[in-house]
Write a structure and sequence with these properties.
CATH architecture of the largest domain: Alpha-Beta Complex
Radius of gyration: 20 Å
Distance between the termini: 42 Å
Oligomer: single chain
Bound molecules: manganese (II) ion
Shape: globular
CATH superfamily of the largest domain: inorganic pyrophosphatase (n-terminal core)
CATH class of the largest domain: Alpha Beta
Order of helices and strands: HEHEEHEHEEHHHHHEEHHEEHEEH
Helix content: 40-55%
Strand content: 15-25%
Largest sheet: 6 strands, parallel
Structural class: alpha/beta
CATH topology of the largest domain: inorganic pyrophosphatase (n-terminal core)
Number of domains: 2
Number of strands: 12
Length: about 325
């Protein structure tokens, strides 16, 4: 159980608070920041949300007042160095904070890490709240807010929390979905949020380019191990041909996992001229975090990834062989 008393003490003692999350932010990290921002502003704190990455278009609804900022040393450092506390959400790996993480270390700021991933790495945090059982970091923020807010949570707070839970549970479908996720959703819906609107903003606002790219992927999809493993690769040329961006690639691995018989979906994406992004999604029969770890990455049991040095031609065979080996050995009696 998390001792929220100490967390609350840390927050109460701080007046100037920075909220931040990882690069290429998702609904969990952003939703947590939005929920905590509204709470802390209500407490009279000088609070800012500053991330390395700008707010993705599909999450603009979280920020109707335009308070989410993108870190820039020249605009933010004067404020930042005076911050009493930094609350970091959902980071997984400290390096994913990128530029803002470097600034936090440079000013040796007090840090509170709240996450449902293990081991965020550097720097030593002033306080760590890590619960790997939580379906989303938003669940932890909900738990905290319930200890400090008497009565129902505000609609503004609930928009953030619902977004966090909805996105990290794949709209209440992934196997991390539990009673708690639904209980939080119920309270959020009671607060008056428009859950259909939130869903549509996040999931029904894909660019045509993304859909064209998906078409290319589906055409080149490969199946191995009697259809239990489905994999695809993406390169810069494919992106260019349809006018897609790197962000358009997000979520494809989840989608491929939805195919009948597929237990593990794998993507290898040549994201720049020297490294590939590798993404694993499992339905639950096979753990994929150890494969990601062996490639220098990490993640959850059924959702993991790595960044691997090298070009597609070299990385694909290496990743495929590591994946097949692991799945065959996890299957026990061989094939
Ligand atoms: Mn998360």
């Amino acid at each position: 159980m998390v001792d929220w008393k100490n967390v609350n003490k840390l927050i109460n003692e701080a007046q100037q608070i920075l909220l931040t999350t990882h690069e290429k932010p998702d609904g969990d990290g952003l939703g947590c920041a939005a929920a905590m921002y509204h709470y802390l502003i209500g407490q009279g704190k000088d609070c800012r949300v500053i991330n390395h990455s700008s707010l993705p278009a599909e999450y603009r609804f979280l920020d109707p007042d335009g308070v989410f900022e993108t870190y820039r040393s020249d605009t933010h450092d004067t404020w930042l160095e005076k911050a009493d506390l930094v609350i970091i959400f959902d980071v997984g790996d400290y390096k994913r904070l990128q530029s803002i993480g470097i600034a936090i270390q440079r000013f040796a700021l007090k840090t509170l890490n709240i996450d449902h991933h293990p081991y965020p790495g550097e720097p030593p945090f002033s306080m760590n709240v890590v619960d790997e059982q939580a379906a989303a970091t938003g669940e932890l923020i909900y738990n905290y807010l319930k200890t400090v807010i008497k009565g129902p949570l505000s609609k503004e707070i609930c928009v953030g929390l619902y977004t966090a839970i909805m996105t990290d549970t794949g709209s209440f479908r992934y196997n991390n979905t539990n009673i708690r996720s639904h209980e939080i959703a119920i309270e959020c819906i009671r607060s008056g949020i428009d859950q259909t609107y939130i869903y549509q903003q996040v999931y029904e606002s894909h660019s045509p380019a993304r859909m064209k790219l998906l078409g290319k992927i589906l055409n080149s999809l490969q199946f191995e191990l009697e259809g239990e493993l489905a994999w695809f690769s993406i390169n810069a040329t494919m992106l260019k041909e349809v006018g897609a961006t790197k962000e358009d690639v997000d979520g494809f691995t989840d989608f491929i996992r939805t195919i009948r018989g597929v237990e593990v979906a794998l993507m290898v994406f040549q994201s720049n001229h020297r490294t590939c992004r590798v993404n694993f999604r499992s339905k639950g029969k096979y753990a994929v975090n150890e494969i990601a770890k062996s490639l220098g990455g990490g993640g959850h049991r059924f959702a993991a990834g790595a960044v691997v040095e090298g070009l597609l031609d070299a990385v694909v065979p290496r990743v495929l062989s590591a994946t097949k080996q692991s799945l065959i050995s996890q299957n026990g009696h061989g094939r």
